[in-house]
Amino acid sequence: MDEEITIIxxxxxxxxxxxxxINNKRxxxxxxxxxxxxxxxxxxxxxxxxxxxIKLANQYxxxxxxxxxxxxxxxxxxxxNVVKSNDTTYSPLALYxxxxxxxxxxxxxxxxxxxxxxxxxxxxxxxxxxxxxxKALFNSDFVSENELLEILNPVIxxxxxxxxxxxYLLAExxxxxxxxxxxxxxxxxxxxxxxxxxxxxxxxxxxxNRDLGE
Length: 214
Known about the structure:
Blueprint: H1 2-23, H2 25-66, H3 72-84, H4 90-100, H5 107-120, H6 125-139, H7 145-156, H8 163-176, H9 180-191, H10 198-211
Helix pairs in contact: 2-3, 3-4, 4-5, 5-6, 6-7, 7-8, 8-9, 9-10
């Protein structure tokens, strides 16, 4: 008797399952299709990113190899294209290469490339802060006090590891302009900064003791 009940229950359960699939056949097909499309789309996207990364790496490396006076303009164009690709690895490297080799003379053009990285490239916060600091360093010889402060504001108003570098740049900027009180203020800020770079803190203390009468 028990065996018969078990067989009946099993048959009933199988029938319910079969009916479920029959009644929901269309929905199940659509659901499975959507899942497959999502998986295929994701894999295609990842493959596309990998292909783009390899292409950028090749473009960057070839530009490095081909750099000489005869094809300088070609190298510049290649590096600018890499910067504008907004790749988190190769875009900063391309800009650094342009700067380190003095390949672009136009300051406005260089600042456009800096802004491309800062505003349009999905960089980690500290990498972005480093690029902001490098932009300020590049501009410090020819921009006004307000312009330099505007560039550095995102860093000096944060807890970034580059904050002490930014403050030191401002302190030296004001020192070079003979604005000693402003220079003192920024050197002092470095000394009380919890995560200040140790070397910068030492140099700030030296500057205060030796040159600013403290």
